[in-house]
Amino acid sequence: MAADLKVDLCVIGAGSAGLSVASAAAQFGASTVLIERGNMGGECLNTGCVPSKALLAAAKAAHAVRTTGCFGVDAAPPTVDFGRVHRHVRDVIAAIAPHDSVERFENLVVQVIRAEARFVGPREIRYYEDIGLIRPPERRENRYRTYGETDVQTLRFIYRARNLGFSLKDISALLTLYQDRERASREVKHLALEHVSELDRKIAELTAIRNAIADLAERCHGDDRPDCPILDELGATAH
Known about the structure:
Blueprint: E1 9-12, H1 16-27, E2 32-35, H2 42-46, H3 49-66, H4 82-96, H5 102-107, E3 110-113, E4 138-139, E5 145-146, H6 149-163, H7 168-179, H8 185-219, H9 229-234
Parallel strand pairs: 1-2, 2-3
Antiparallel strand pairs: 4-5
Helix pairs in contact: 3-4
């Protein structure tokens, strides 16, 4: 039996809308899974918008040649080689494809699953509700969720806290304090300073890595010779 995936957001379909949502969610810090059974980019890239606009561009170019006479410029009627037009369409698709690729989205830390999927119930489209960060919203008669100003403010709070690098556990604690009008500010400060300490630790680690790489780059001549201390270091036997 396959294991359940616990993520903030599940996007079904890697068309233009799905890709935009998955990219934005990942960059906001939400753990995201993207499911697509067909080609990345969906209809827009592969059979719709992009190829049709490439064809229209070729048609516009041919039309421009045919109508140069009105500008006092005479030209021979254009010859349309559909094979070359087709190659032009494929080249346009190929130029855009890397932006919609599995590799790009995995680099954004989006988990891409090549499979068919569908939502089977309301639980699969809740994320912050399920982990208790926001309360389940009221629903209209059509079962659509209704978010009030308080809900929107809570989502803004979560978004800003995620941008500052707080974990979901810390955000939950901060939200509890934010909603408690009898809170003690020292508790908020304690959480903030703990986060600063963790950031300082990560900064120190990254600084050490940065300095090590800079030192290796400084010792590399960067010329046509094969000798390279960077590769020597990476390939060195552990001491």
